[in-house]
TrEMBL record:
<dbReference type="InterPro" id="IPR004843">
    <property type="entry name" value="Calcineurin-like_PHP"/>
</dbReference>
<dbReference type="GO" id="GO:0009245">
    <property type="term" value="P:lipid A biosynthetic process"/>
</dbReference>
<dbReference type="InterPro" id="IPR029052">
    <property type="entry name" value="Metallo-depent_PP-like"/>
</dbReference>
<dbReference type="Pfam" id="PF00149">
    <property type="entry name" value="Metallophos"/>
</dbReference>
<dbReference type="InterPro" id="IPR051158">
    <property type="entry name" value="Metallophosphoesterase_sf"/>
</dbReference>
<feature type="domain" description="Calcineurin-like phosphoesterase">
    <location>
        <begin position="33"/>
        <end position="198"/>
    </location>
</feature>
<dbReference type="GO" id="GO:0016020">
    <property type="term" value="C:membrane"/>
</dbReference>
<dbReference type="GO" id="GO:0008758">
    <property type="term" value="F:UDP-2,3-diacylglucosamine hydrolase activity"/>
</dbReference>
<protein>
    <submittedName>
        <fullName>Metallophosphoesterase</fullName>
    </submittedName>
</protein>
Length: 257
């Protein structure tokens, strides 16, 4: 297929930067915690090396404290004859408190997670699979956890939170957004998800006619579920067809006070 003729083909320059403010920190701080959330790059499926260069530059220009990638970094790892060549570029995506990633369903279904894990480690991207870390933001501890994929693997909230100290600000990376109804029971402050691509193709007044499994209830943007905030990223890449309609790719910056 000649991709150049496709209508509404997504281009790297179509990306929008959205900003949100959340009041979650337990202590006063001179400056907010800056968190970048991106998702669903689908490297190997119509998402090129040049796309990655462009988007990483935009992310770094925002000077985040934390970068969160909520799954589906890879789609077809064999598309790159040597995907390890991506490591020097991925290493340029930096944040003082770290870059963190949890698997999505596409990462899992290609059955190459050991190789992906090695690439992430060499790129200084910390993989969170049913585990979590305590981060120190200006002497305030923050728990950041991540689940394994729910659809094609074994995401486990109990295991992910087993070492969480009591009463600590908690952020979770969970690829599938509709799992939020379960996550909310665990005193989580904010869940970062992707998976739905915001529908990828949307129509005015109608929304997204096609939604994936576990991405049908919460599709795009911010939601309040009990005491928890859920953010569903429209993603940076595409799946199935390399097109978007009324749903541009997005980099999201959270200023957390």
């Amino acid at each position: 297929m000649n991709k150049n003729w496709l209508p509404f083909k997504s281009k790297k320059e179509d990306v929008v930067i959205k900003r949100h403010t959340l009041n979650l920190l337990r202590q006063p701080h001179a400056a907010p915690l800056k968190v970048i959330h991106i998702s669903d790059l689908h490297l190997g499926f119509h998402y090129s090396y040049d796309d990655l260069i462009y988007h990483i530059q935009l992310i770094n220009d925002l000077q985040p404290d934390i970068i969160i990638i909520s799954g589906d970094l890879f789609d077809n790892i064999d598309h790159y004859h040597n995907p390890e060549h991506l490591i020097p570029l991925l290493k340029t995506m930096t944040a003082p408190l770290g870059v963190f990633f949890s698997y999505g369903n596409h990462d899992q279904r290609i059955h190459q997670t050991p190789r992906i894990s090695r690439i992430l480690s060499a790129s200084n991207i910390q993989l969170l699979t049913n585990t979590g870390v305590v981060l120190d933001f200006d002497q305030e501890p923050i728990f950041l956890g991540g689940l394994d994929d729910i659809i094609n693997s074994k995401g486990n909230m109990y295991q992910a939170l087993k070492n969480r100290p009591d009463d600590m600000l908690t952020m979770m990376i969970v690829h599938e957004p509709d799992y939020a109804d379960f996550v909310e029971q665990f005193k989580v402050d904010v869940q970062f998800s992707g998976h739905s691509h915001g529908g990828q193709i949307r129509f005015p007044l109608v929304g997204a006619p096609v939604k994936p499994q576990l991405g049908r209830k919460y599709v795009k943007g911010l939601y309040r579920i009990g005491a928890m905030t859920l953010h569903v990223s429209p993603g940076l890449g595409t799946t199935h067809l390399p097109i978007r309609l009324f749903c541009p790719p997005e980099i999201t910056l959270f200023n957390i006070h």
